[in-house]
Amino acid sequence: MPYDPNYSIKVGGHVQSWTPEGAMLAAFSNVAGSATLAALKGASLTDGAAYVVAADGSTWRYAATSVLAADDILVAAPTSGTGRLLRVDKEVDVTAAVTFATADAAVLYTVPAGFQLALGIPYIHVTTSWTGGTSSAIGASSSATGLTAKGDLLGGASGDVAAGLLSTGAYAKGTKGTDIGTPGALLVGGDAILFDRITSVFTAGAGVLHFPVKVLLAPAS
Question: Is 58 exposed, middle or buried (0-12, 13-18, 19+ CB in 10 A)?
Fold first, then answer.
């Protein structure tokens, strides 16, 4: 099968192809899980080859010359050898665990160089109900231009308060950020997602913030 850079990828030394609509005609190599994938030695990975993680269905491509900082969300580093595993999926859930003790403006995630991400609708999965403080409220914003006001990504200007941050009920909670759904809700390499203490400080509470993104652009290496 000839190699067409538009509709082909080399997998384990073989050429796999897909239609312009993106439907793969052959399966990628299977890897047991993200930890196993990241632990593979550089010498065991083929430059340009793609690997599917069975545990979550994520797909990664090995770039032998990449030196991007690893975050195990969009970039993973083998435990030995060189190169990086770059996320291939077009939709990714960027997650960050937070608690009542998470500092205001704490960096939850920094977008690796070369990526361009369009934000979906963020939410929080509450694992421990948030309580305490005086009308306490939390949210999320970004260092990206136009997304720097507290609550721009999650919580809105007033933030999410205790009544909406209970561990019971819906899995996904939170108020849509002020700038979510606008053309400016875009993150590029170097942009950070920040935790916001909008009003007062909770004395208890924990959860996982989710930032669903669509990958518009990814680096070649």
Answer: buried
Say whether 60 sits in a helix, a strand or coil: strand
pTM: 0.83
- Asked if residues 170 and 110 have their Cβ atoms less than 8 Å apart, the reply is no
Q: Which domain holds residue 24?
A: 8-87
Distance CA 45, CA 11 (A): 10
Query: What H or E segment, with its residue span, contains residue 118?
Result: strand 116-119
Q: Do the bridges between strand 8-11 and strand 14-17 make them parallel or antiparallel, or are there none, so unpaired? A: antiparallel
CA nearest neighbour of 74 among 27, 34, 16: 34
Closest residue by Cα to residue 201 from 162, 167, 163: 162
1 within some domain: no
Based on the fold, state whether residues 75 and 95 are members of the same structural domain: no
17 pLDDT more than 80:
no
If you count DSSP H runs as helices and E runs as strands, how many of each does the chain have, helices first? 1, 16
Pair 179, 203 in one domain:
yes
- Interval 110-156: pLDDT, tens: 999 999 999 999 999 999 999 999 999 999 999 999 999 999 999 99
Eight-class DSSP state of 175 = P
Mean pLDDT is lowest, of 14-28, 94-108, 159-173, 179-193, for 14-28
> Could you tell me the two tokens for 27?
């399966």
Whether 201 maps to a domain, the answer reads yes
- Does residue 57 sit in helix, strand or coil? coil
Could you tell me which residue, 18 or 75, shows the higher pLDDT?
75
